[in-house]
Amino acid sequence: MVLKLLRGKEVADGIKNQISDEIVELNKEGKIPLLGIVRLGDDPSDISYEKSIVKNCDSLGIKTRVEVLDRQIDTNGLLIKIDELNRDELVSGILVFRPLPNHIDEDKVRKHLDPMKDVDCMHPLNLEKIFEGDSAGFAPCTPKAAMEILAHYKISLEGKKVVVINRSMVVGKPLAMMLLEKNATVTICHSRTKNLADITKKADIVVTGLGKAKFFGDKYFNKDSVVIDVGVSLDEEGKYSGDVDIDKVRDMVSMITPVPGGVGSVTTSILLKQVVEASKLS
Fold this sequence. Notes:
The chain has about 280 residues and is α/β, with parallel strands linked by helices. It is about 40% helix and about 15% strand. It is globular.
């Protein structure tokens, strides 16, 4: 059996080509999309993601404004910075890097964002639209990226058994709602699910989002499994890796997204697309 890699680049390139044309039209109206990025501290993964976003924005003509705050800042200090970005008419979209430190009240932060600039779907109003099946709001970028990959490679979801191994509001829960909209039968699992391999092995599609490098081996899948690997972490050699040990499953599964080069590359493109959409609305 030949393993098919569901590479993100061609999906991302298609999205970028679309928004490139839209940016040209916005420029004719005197509008320049601008993404405000709020980063707390100097976490290497945040910095890496930030560099990728800025590079992609520069290539498309989207401006960026990076606000780096001390990781020890209190909730009120963060809300003041978000207020500034909310009021700034030049700022089209706002991205707050997560996870936030434990001492920050994330619920207050989510509710403080202007829903019209909330391009990563933190605000309850945008999340509510996802759960109501309303595509008018901004979707969480990672779940949306997973859906775009499935659509691009023409992987049918109708009636399929899909296991999502993540229960967060950032990935698992909104993704489950998106999958249900496509008539998939969805099971949400997590780190404490018992007999996880028994559940995933019976699924048509498995989405992994544990954030544990190379955690999943061949016992979790069957020969027809389609695997969407959302997890990104460092392996024992200090290299970026997905949740799935691709070397151990390449003779077992039918399709898989590589890490790097899979969901992550599409996630950034989705973010930029939503910045452009926000600019249109301003």
